[in-house]
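A reminder before we start the practical. When you read a complex entry, don't treat the lines as separate problems. The point of joint prediction is that each chain is placed relative to the others, so the output describes one connected object in space. Small molecules and nucleic acid strands, if listed, are placed in the same frame. In the example below there are two entries. Take a minute to note the order of the lines before looking further.
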Amino acid sequence: MGSVAPFLIFFAAAAIVAVTSGRLRSMVLLATPIVGAANLYLMPADMSVQVPLLDFTLELVRLDRLSLLFGYLFHLAAFLGIVYALHVRDRIEQVAAIIYAGSALGAVFAGDLITLFLFWESLALSSTFLILARRTQRSYRAAMRYLAIQVLSGVILLVGVLMYAKATGSIAFEFIGLQPLDGGLAGPASWLILLAFGIKCAFPFLHNWLTDAYPEATPTGTVFLSAFTTKVAVYALARAFPGTELLVYVGAAMTMFPIFFAVIENDLRRVLSYSLINQIGFMVAGIGIGTALAVNGAISHAFNDVVFKGLLFMSMGAVLHRTGKINGSDLGGLYKSMPVTTTFCIVGAASISAFPLFSGFVSKSMVMAAALEEGHPVVWLALLFASAGVFHHAGIKIPYFAFFAHDSGLKPKEAPPNMLLAMGLAAAISIFNGAYPWVLYEMLPYPVEYAPYTSAHVLTQIQLLFFSALAFVWLQLTGLYPPELPGINIDAEWSYRKALPVAARRITGLAAGVRDVVLRWGRSGLLGIFELILRHSGPEGAMARTRPSGYMALWMTVLLSVFLLLSFL
Amino acid sequence: MTENTRRHIFDGPKNIRRVRYVLYTVSGLSLVVELFVKRYVDHPWEALFGFYALFGFVACAILVLVAKELRKVLMRGEDYYDG
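Here is the predicted structure of the whole assembly.
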């Protein structure tokens, strides 16, 4: 025995990282995910840690195939991120990253909804520091918007969980679904829980915290961010809402709309953020379809995505680290001085594009095959469109505009060795999972009967990708391809970053006007009353005049005389 | 500085053209191979010759051209939210 809850190792490491420095701190950082993974490996299969809280029993650790896979994935992601960030000398960022990774582990091993909520909020808080660590005004504002939305997701989750617990008497983190349960309350409770998951999962219109904040974090922070928050949400959906048909359409929408933004976006890390939503769309759609094939596809794609999207963010982070620039309009020609980073970026691009022998090929296709099997041909077409689109914006655009295109004149040094090592490891894993997917397949929640390497699948995928590339070449040669331009594109966030502040300014302006008018009227009215009182009762007023006391005696005499006279009449 | 004077692989148009020709060749070959591969299809459209090739090309062209038009509606200055 001797196993402990996985998050404890990370939280303890965070405490040590906070008080050590130099080589010792690097050693502790590197050892954390390795010790964590060993702890996970040695954990007995029926491991369960329970803690009583008021009337409930919290299950801090619940082990099954689904949580175990995500557990290993997050240890791997933490290790890659730590190697990538080994040159960083920022205590706050490093402590935040470790707590963040630990919180993600806490969330996936949570056996009940209250424990899930605690780690849900801990994820929000710790990750905010990765954005703040950039230490710019822009990143500060983005971090505050990010934190507000993440905490909102947590509050909605808590309300949903309490309503759910009241209606069902259970806080178990198991299948929830959207069907009404006994007592009638579970309906809205389930919807609230789904909404909370949906915010963290970047559902359409709830997605802008991601594209807003991720590109503003530090080069290393974004690598951590891309791995954990959204994948915890995918895990939560896979556990609580598999087979929920709504998710099929939400997922399809998520694969579609971000690619349009990605094509015209200039900030290459923001392109990757949109692309991240596009990839999560495949997972959400797979969870919505809910068959063994579809859920396997969603989960394996989550695994591969953490690695290849991390790799792409690492390559762009290396460019930002070396050049201080990340806009496509400022970059180009970097392959000359950063050839190794270029190569790793292309491996990531091939993986996300699902080239045969690269990791996306063996996982994304499961979701698409399941969409057809379960009678969703329109969704399948949408996913196919998004597959061609992802190759276009992530597969071609990212490497092309950063490393090729026109020569920007920038001659940065190659990325630091620790960054190259992390990228190399991620690239190797992407190729390994693509070329030999059976290790990954073995870990999936359901037995895998899917064969990715049929001649038809390889051929059709090659056709899809190469003809997409032909379209890119054609559009470039004819000058139809939109150039990279400095500027931003408005999205759903316009509602709270522009419309709401403008409306608030108008309303406060209007209120200030009303207040001025009321005050002016009130002041003149009040002044009138004061003047009246002053006139009558002031020092010069008639009511305040002083008279000699003889007056009183005289008037009393007059009064009494009148009285006497009257009595004689 | 040798770095500035060294010629790199894509400095001249020759190698860029080569890459394009490789792309054209592989694309063409993939269509030829399709004649000989027996495919199991889940959807009737999949059975059409060159469906994936055509779909990939058209999807990307539509994606880029629509996105280009969207720029007219969506694009703002870099300081749009700062004001």
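Discuss with your neighbour: Chain A has two domains: 9-240, 242-499. What might explain this?
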